Amino acid sequence: MPTKLSRRDFLRVCAGTTAAISLSGFLAPFMKEAVAAGAPPVIWIQGASCTGCSISLLNTVHPDIQKVLTEVISLTYHPNISAAAGDLAIKEAIYGVAEANPGNFFLVVEGAVPTGANGHFCMVGEENGEPIVFEKLVKDIGGKAKAILNFGTCSSYGGIPATPPNPTECVPVSQVVKDVPCINVPGCPPHPDWMVGTIAHVLLYNDIPELDSYGRPKMFFNTIIHDNCQRRQYFENGIFAKTFGDPGCMLELGCKGPFAHCDATNRMWNNGTNWCVKCGAVCIGCTEPQFPGWPMYERMPEMPVGSATSVTADQVGMAVGGLAVLGIAGHLGGNILTGRIGPHKEKDEDVKVGEN
Amino acid sequence: MAKIIVDPVTRIEGHLKLEVEVENNVVVDAWTSGTLWRGMELIMQGRDPRDAEQIMQRICGVCPTGHATAGILALDDAFGIEPPPNGRIIRNLILGSNWVQSHILHFFHLAALDYVKGPELAPFKPRYEADYRLPADINEQAVAIYLEALTIRRKAHEMLAIWGGKMPHVQAIVPGGVSEVPDTSKIYRFLSLLEEMQAFIEQKYIPTVKAVAGVYSDWFSIGTGCMNMLAFGGFPQEEGMDHVKKKKHFPAGTYIRGQFAELDTAKITEEVTYSWYKDDTHGNTPDVSVVTPDAEKKGAYSWMKSPRYNGEAMEVGPLARQWIAKNPDVAALGKQAFSVMGRHFARAIETGEIAKAMKEWVLQLEPGQPVCTPHKLPTKEVVGVGLCEASRGALGHWHRISSDGRTMVYNAVVPTTWNSSPRTGEGASAVRGPMEQAIIGTAVADPANPVELVRIIRSMDPCYGCAIHVMTPDKKTISQFAIN
């Protein structure tokens, strides 16, 4: 599927290094072209979710969601948007499209997959008087997809419903469908650009973007909140907010920015209006696989000091509970520490212009 | 007797199945089934109670602000604190902005396609083909507004994010107030977006509802329901520790069998006769209601419990709120208010009301003044109660915290659980949920295209994310729950 947009340019746009061009606005014409040239259809299904990922997608800007829906993505089914209901939805819009395009459609999954009680915690339809459970739908449809796009932390890693004691035995999609490539676009919810950008990549290049070790597209998830935070200077100066509404670094009030990967610091939310730490709240680490496995409003028990060179030992000791420990809480373990924390620069992507 | 099954019902939040029995094309009985359960409240147990603010709003991505509000009121109540005026006002602006977003999304993007014929392409096709009556020019206009409404609701989220940090799932609501501080640039940006909202509401939303209602005027007598109304009241307008009794912009109250009365939360019970939970908690008040899931339970057909008020099924939502507030436009409809179109009309009118009110509130903010009261985790066992009005109706959170500052019990009784509850009682004395009552008696012209049924369901703006994810299923791990 040839496109005039080189993958290098694509990555630059997604990473926000091209100033003043909104992601989806820039991509839309290329995607429109790709869809017109017969890009694979997209089916979107929801399991143990809150619909927040879908609502977040609706917040895409330039072009509005209307363009995304009618021109950019060939979205054949979406549970909140589709006019179809009942059998029309299940038989035609989901199974029908999957069977007509085996191996040549993309499946978006929103929500975790409940496996307890034979899957009866989430029933998504009915066939011959028997409920179709979400687990079966994911296996049936996911198994035929070219790739699965897990939108949100729930489908990517289990998320909120899979939190101990995991009452419905929720698992991420990758544990249910093992032989189809998965792209994880976590976030609770994900930023619309992360979702539109990922869909754009698969449609334009018919290929999955480069992923980190947690299956996240590097173009969105290779920076750490703390490194780029507008409140970083407070940290360097040892100024820590003690009550919400105070100026200062939010570490004392529970901020998880030092280990959370995403680009909300620069991209910001809701058309550049605000984001979690800018509004004086804390980062809760919602893009990480272990989310929400930590207290949100308690200071991280341990944290890396990183490049905090201008704070005195006393200040850091006061703030982070001990200079000696250069790690993060035990349950996050080494996989985050090993080279993932602190300043790290990706090598310039070695991609060929015009590569498909 | 023929059966019609609509599963899944789409363009709602969450998972719903509807089953009805029809005789001579008229519905004689109905069963609404919530078909997803996540056990959100169980996930809260043993956690830092403040996490409820983040965890519980993830019950629902359409109206997380309702849960954020009820959850934080319960925490404030438990901690014995309340926000300074700036904090109270900003919380009201956050919740009000999402009402605007949610109501516009609901009418245009969830409900309108039942009346307005969408463009001839996916995902607007396939659809139930039935009874599209709008004249071509009005239909065309409505489709244009459908598309414009996508932009408007996005901007309502931007308006919210000025104070809330981001949306969906707002960050800035914290115990004792909010984290975002007011300044003039935020106030002006909010006002300018709000004026755009108001123009849309007055010039597009309300007129479209009126145009649809004019052509579908028979729908003012379809989907009547139980005619019992319940509101917890929303948008506090004064300081004072007891948030349940505070003066609110939309008042609390009940309307049962034609009589208005004050709200008495002690009359709320939760029943599980036809729910997939063991019977041992049947009839308990929500403060002690602790259920065990039983997916094999005989006769059960829903993951939802059945909240009742003094044994009565109660409808909640914009209609209930505005009926209890005696809004003149809604009251003027008389009995016709209790209908599919009455609900759409009340929702539209209310959207205008809240936008107008927010314009006053935002100018009451005082830059430089505090937004938040500091809190301490409790050192003795406490229970916090948070009652508010989510966009879809009366919402209550009950939160019990242990003396070592951990969550012991969490319970949320949510709008759709009221509206879409399964029946209680047996045989002739069974009390069906408001939605089931609204569906029974409806004529279905073409059982293969049961557009009538989904119109009734969507008029109540059900949200199954809220309704079913929120029960506490494992009795043995939970201590007895009682309000102190």
Describe the structure.
The complex is a heterodimer of chains A (356) and B (484). Chain A has 356 residues and is of the alpha/beta class. Chain A folds into two domains: 7-221, Rossmann fold; 223-344, Irregular (Cytochrome-c3 Hydrogenase, Chain A, domain 2), CATH 4.10.480. Chain A contains 14 helices and nine strands. Chain A has a five-stranded parallel sheet with strand order 2-1-3-7-9, sandwiched between helices. In chain A, strands 4-8 form a two-stranded antiparallel ribbon. With 484 residues, chain B is α+β, with helices and mostly antiparallel strands. Chain B has one domain (2-12, 21-477): Orthogonal Bundle (Cytochrome-c3 Hydrogenase, chain B), CATH 1.10.645.10. Chain B contains 13 helices and 15 strands. Chain B has helices at 40-44, 52-55, 64-79, 85-111, 136-164, 184-215, 318-324, 328-331, 340-362, 415-419, 434-439, 451-459, 464-468, and strands spanning 2-6, 16-23, 26-34, 173-174, 177-178, 229-231, 234-236, 248-250, 253-256, 259-261, 268-271, 306-309, 382-390, 393-401, 407-413. In chain B, strand 4 and strand 5 form a beta hairpin. In chain B, helix 4 (85-111) packs parallel to helix 6 (184-215) and helix 6 packs antiparallel against helix 9. Residues 465-484 of chain B have low confidence and may be disordered. The interface between A and B is large, with 84 and 88 residues.
